[in-house]
Amino acid sequence: xxxxxxxxxxxxxxxxxxxxxxxxxxxxxxxxxxxxxxxxxxxxxxxxxxxxxxxxxxxxxxxxxxxxxxxxxxxxxxxxxxxxxxxxxxxxxxxxxxxxxxxxxxxxxxxxxxxxxxxxxxxxxxxxxxxxxxxxxxxxxxxxxxxxxxxxxxxxxxxxxxxxxxxxxxxxxxxxxxxxxxxxxxxxxxxxxxxxxxxxxxxxxxxxxxxxxxxxxxxxxxxxxxxxxxxxxxxxxxxxxxxxxxxxxxxxxxxxxxxxxxxxxxxxxxxxxxxxxxxxxxxxxxxxxxxxxxxxxxxxxxxxxxxxxxxxxxxxxxxxxxxxxxxxxxxxxxxxxxxxxxxxxxxxxxxxxxxxxxxxxxxxxxxxxxxxxxxxxxxxxxxxxxxxxxxxxxxxxxxxxxxxxxxxxxxxxxxxxxxxxxxxxxxxxxxxxxxxxxxxxxxxxxxxxxxxxxxxxxxxxxxxxxxxxxxxxxxxxxxxxxxxxxxxxxxxxxxxxxxxxxxxxxxxxxxxxxxxxxxxxxxxxxxxxxxxxxxxxxxxxxxxxxxxxxxxxxxxxxxxxxxxxxxxxxxxxxxxxxxxxxxxxxxxxxxxxxxxxxxxxxxxxxxxxxxxxxxxxxxxxxxxxxxxxxxxxxxxxxxxxxxxxxxxxxxxxxxxxxxxxxxxxxxxxxxxxxxxxxxxxxxxxxxxxxxxxxxxxxxxxxxxxxxxxxxxxxxxxxxxxxxxxxxxxxxxxxxxxxxxxxxxxxxxxxxxxxxxxxxxxxxxxxxxxxxxxxxxxxxxxxxxxxxxxxxxxxxxxxxxxxxxxxxxxxxxxxxxxxxxxxxxxxxxxxxxxxxxxxxxxxxxxxxxxxxxxxxxxxxxxxxxxxxxxxxxxxxxxxxxxxxxxxxxxxxxxxxxxxxxxxx
Length: 903
What we know:
By secondary structure, this protein is mainly alpha-helical. Helices cover 65% and strands 4% of the residues. The strands form 2 sheets. Strands 2-3-4-1-5 form a 5-stranded parallel beta sheet, sandwiched between helices. Strands 6-7 form a two-stranded antiparallel ribbon.
């Protein structure tokens, strides 16, 4: 019975109404055990008769089984799997156990979204997930991925999750309602319905006070108190029968059963199939016959409906299982394993739970479970299987290998603390050099992503040194990685130069080998600020891979990093576009996120700010879905910077970055995130030079200091700190001399002009503009035209100033740099010319996601293909495409393609 809950029912009704009208969404119902979450879900189902309903629930004992809950949910839709894109369909078939998988969980996640959206085309869809705190990790991740991307789909996703349990359903970014206790008339209605009699108000209030208004506790009390006690004619017992909690009350009922019935109920609590035939067959092996089943049913702790068996409440399962001795629990697992001969994974887990000593056969079976789970992207389940296999393995290399595999899977499943603990345990067992190097590399990756860049660097150095004697290719890769970390400021007490670990390859060595060696030495040169050597080595790597492209998930990102380090914008844009295209086609979410966020650097440099904002906006939900909340800091900081560059409100993004960095480890990108926020805050404080300088001075990354150089010069000179400007100029001069890049030369000449004054300034400005011709950095070019125009106007050469001010104004308007456009317009007016706002034909009115959709459609992709690349559904693509048509005044894909847009 549901009493009250009107605000919560209204929230659910709004969710369902939105789904009916084509606006998908999700809602999480939270509360402690017994507060009425499942009852509220049942009420929602009763109001959703016009919606198609899919249901699943978490089962505590099922948590090691990858995608178990998702399999149950999607089973009714299995005949529609062919309707989703083939890569997603293949991943879903692996999830459903119908095919082998390739380990890409995110394709399965996207397939889940696509399949739900496809099913909702026929009728609005309500997806109900109860006991979400007990979902296996892979199912939870898939459903949260889908929930966060519901937009134009007719899908409502309704979760119920228990608070206060050891396992928590982490969905903090989704809309949530929290159920509290009931009081007053609502509590009285629950008590009266259960007792079949009126309840004295004073007694009602006393029971509410004693239970916190927990509906399940009230119902249980109404069943054990007498009519006189409930009517106030007899005193209530002291303490109340539920003083030990609802779980204790269930345990008392359990203990009143005879031993065969207790054994039957323990088997039912240990089982996770919910099939009576399985539970009965297993219980019979413990000499619990049908009479035991009758007794358990009469107790009200278990219900049977056909072949389905269900416990009265999830707390019955935990109370009964935990009350049993370890021997009794092992016996229950053993008999379930005996009868589950057709379900190898469940059988293996029951055998593992029944084992209390090493067993090679069970270990081999667990290895198989782990491998199959990893193949379909169930990394959490794979980690659990390998960890249990390690527990049942006699110590040594075999145990260490399984602990390493468990740690690696835990890391891939976004459980860094668990991964770190498993890797630490493996370190005590792994001695052989090659697996030792692999383990150290994993530990380094965990460390630099979650705690310390320096400690992670030290571990990678150790790994490279260990690998050098046994695996030259691995040693080269690790040495390159160590050198890249050093280039970003990582330091170690270990006196080891990673470049000495790798001999120079022969001229006819494979392209990848030569590229890795060149990158290794390029990164080493960056670490010692030898920009000429760095540029030479990096260009060698670029030439090698240009001539013979290498498809390598380690090498390709490091080529992009090299381009960042030497400000090779054109190559960086090209590399990251290639990486992004390849990652989209492969459905590789992690690589899509990496290409998006790293490509933003070059887009900001080149003035493609709308693209940068779109990339960061797309990356944000992708990082949120990885299980590492700290990763959301980078795209959020990028959004803040673009907003500050445009003169938009950056404060909400900056506040969010601060919150993320306070709550979560950001890892290797933390320094970059800090630099972006310092630059954004400096831009926001441009009118207060001292404040702006305070923020800009804190930018530490050389690449970002160079990008912000003109703001640094401007703030230093307006803040009467020419000494700082000269210091930054000296740093830029060294970089420009080493790399010979036009962009660097232009900024150096701009800085010299600002510091020179008098007649020399004009010469330096002209040199800067000449250098800008060979650079794609339009914002810097616009700033030089503006500064030159301001200089000329102050020198009373107003006619000469106007040409540069007009150019600056036009460029700033094209960029959407409102503060700078206003400054240029003001200077132009001061020169005696009226600044007329141009009609800039751009797509700036489109949202970031509309821009992405339009750009991909203009490449000739279908809605389905666009959806696969953007990790959304086809219906969402259609929604955004129609918005594009409306805003741009076109009515077809051909007309959209013909528009002169810079997307």
